[in-house]
Amino acid sequence: MHSSLFPLADPAKTRLDTELLKEFDRKVRKEKVVSCLIMQDGHLAYEYHKNKKQAEKLQKINSCTKSFISVLIGIALDQGLIAVCHPAKGNRHEHI
Predict the structure, then answer these.
(1) How far apart are CA 96 and CA 92, in angstroms?
(2) d(CA 39, CA 9)
(3) Exposed, middle or buried, 87 (CB in 10 Å: 0-12/13-18/19+)?
(4) How confident is the model over 41-86, as pLDDT tens digits?
(5) Residues in CB range of 28: below 8 A, 6 or more apart
(6) Cα gap 14→90, rounded to integer Å
(7) Which of 65, 70, 82, 93 has its CA 20 to 30 A from that of 76?
């Protein structure tokens, strides 16, 4: 079931490990996952939906965005793409 919102990635051109992606797919299908999409370079590299109804429905992501952003910041720091200008000093809650 393909979402028409995103162009499909050419599997031959993705940088995803095919065997690892197959294992990921098997595990996603066994868990209580409703939908999962993996984007790479603006293209849809993987898509799973429990059923057609879920494919057409907006999904709650709760606070997942914060987790992704923190991982991306960590990667960018590690690769030297960004730097910490003013590291935190002391306890931010000293006034409490």
Answers:
(1) 9
(2) 8
(3) exposed
(4) 889 999 999 998 888 888 888 788 888 899 999 999 999 999 887 6
(5) 36, 48
(6) 44
(7) 93
